[in-house]
Amino acid sequence: MTTRNPRRADFPLLAANPELYYLDSAATSQKPRVVLDAMREYYERDNANPHRGAYALSARATDRYHEARERVAKFLGASDADCLVFTRGTTESLNLVASAWGHANLREGDEIVVTALEHHANFVPWQQVAIARGAKFVVCPLTSDHRVDLDALRTLVGPRTKVLAFNHVSNALGTVNPVDKIAAIGRGVGALIVCDGAQGAPHLRVGFDTLDVDFYAFSGHKMCGPMGIGGLLGRRAILEAMPPYQFGGDMIEFVRDEESTWAALPHKFEAGTPNVGDAVGLAAACDYLDGIGLDAVLEHERALVRLATERLRAIDGVCIYGPKPSERSGVVSFSVAGIHPHDLSTVLDEDGVCIRAGQHCAQPLMRRLGVSATARASFYLYNDEADVEALVRGVQRAKEVFAGSELNEDELVPCRGAR
Amino acid sequence: MSDLQELYQSIILDHNRRPKNYGPLEEANHRAEGRNPSCGDEVRVELRVTDERIEDVRFTAAGCAVSRASASIMTQNVKGKSREEVDRLFQQFHGLVTGKVRPNEQEARALGELAAFAGVARFPIRVKCASMPWHVLQAALRSDASDSASTSEPPIA
């Protein structure tokens, strides 16, 4: 038995389950003890409704929330912390932009361009606002190795393009997109540049101040933080010009009978009691990740992705989707001929191997790959070679379970672009 | 027999490999499609209903072994049956795959090949795979003649 990754000891769930092989961090990461402790400590020592009560405890809660925002903004390389709006996560962040900016700025005949790599959360909000505003919704195709086709993008983006939305990293394949190259194409026509960073922020330095995008959306729970918090980083001038997304307490300046005015950033976009406890947890997650260093995290993941890719590719009938490991984050998306990913996942689960099987909330991509589903193993800082070995053993076991089950033609999984 | 062997026993693997009543049905007068949005499974069931009974039934599916085999075995078991009889049979089947009913030997014999799905009960997340074809069949039976219906399993069912 290979020695397990010592970082597993930082994660109570992994420490308590030495025979668990958790390969679904692209769906949600496990939580280190320091994050859980920070949240518990907040609730035990400082909990009150911030911004409201004129008493010391409420002021402490306000301070903790403010500090958390500063910490998370710093982690993402944003010097103007007021331009970090806390949300429930990437999905809410993208809906915020599509809805608030889209309804205020899109007109009939305008165009919105997204890519075929998108998660539904960065696809459907744009598709729907396009329908509502009479704008055209355009999907940029992919290259044969499942990267955004930049040549096609250059022809699709034009003077009518008002929004260019794409992900930093594909959740389904792990493809790392060249943000600057894609953004430059949209900048050329003055489009709003929106980046879905749900799979980027946990693995790559974002450096928002120098990243050429207008908005960057992310989720806390994929980067060792708690579920229920994430954020939207935006450029100040754009955020200030945008109407609010939701109305209620905490986002108000004055409410008259006839009209209202809004609080300054970031509060304008944070209606209702803020999620202080989870913000504190997310700040602790940033401390934890910085303690390791994102460069080390990515290097560790890529080594495991390389190993998993090599080992899986050596198995007869396995197809791997997406570009080569050096152009991917910690994701291996694959299929095994004659075994549906869902069945594969059940066999793996029997040995404690957790993978995702399905469409990964990316039906437009699955259609283009010509598959109804893939199996996805995703790696993070606490994974190790034992996880890879367990995955490979599980795939071989699934082949044994399904042995003798010769293939129908319609079961043969097309392997276009697979490596 | 391990849980896995019981789930993926040869009857199920055989029906997955060589499904019965597979393909479009000529002169169908009821049809429905269903999909499980979380895993991408899709099932289409077409029926010819005459005098309130299923005269013929065929299906097409893209999905896991459990859902394909379930659809295949289902089609063999519902020919000649009325809507009420189908509902009763599905209730028995659902009891079996959820583990709520443990059929005795006689009941298991009556279920025939459907009894092969008893192993699903140990895999609660796979219950929806086994039951989806039945939901689609029921939607097809409810659909107006020559009209088509669709049903969608909730992500967690």
CATH architecture of the largest domain in chain A: 3-Layer(aba) Sandwich
Assembly annotation: heterodimer
Radius of gyration of chain B: 15 Å
**CATH architectural name of chain B:** Alpha-Beta Complex
Per DSSP E runs of 2 or more residues, the count of β-strands of chain B stands at: 4
Order of strands in the sheet with the most strands of chain A?
A: 2-8-7-6-5-3-4
Number of helices of chain B: 6
What is the percent of helical residues of chain A?
25-40%
CATH class of the largest domain in chain A: Alpha Beta
Mean pLDDT of chain B: 89
Helix and strand run of chain B: HHEEEHHHHE
Uncertain stretches of 5 or more adjacent residues of chain B: none
Which regions of chain A have little confidence, pLDDT < 50, spanning 5+ residues?
408-413
Please state how the strands of the largest beta sheet of chain B are arranged side by side. 3-2-1-4
Task: Sketch the major β-sheet of chain B.
Answer: 4 strands, mixed
- The shape of chain B is globular
> What is the overall number of helices of chain A?
13
Terminal Cα span of chain B = 27 Å
* Proportion in β-strands of chain B: 15-25%
Backbone shape of chain A: globular
- Name the CATH class of chain B: Alpha Beta
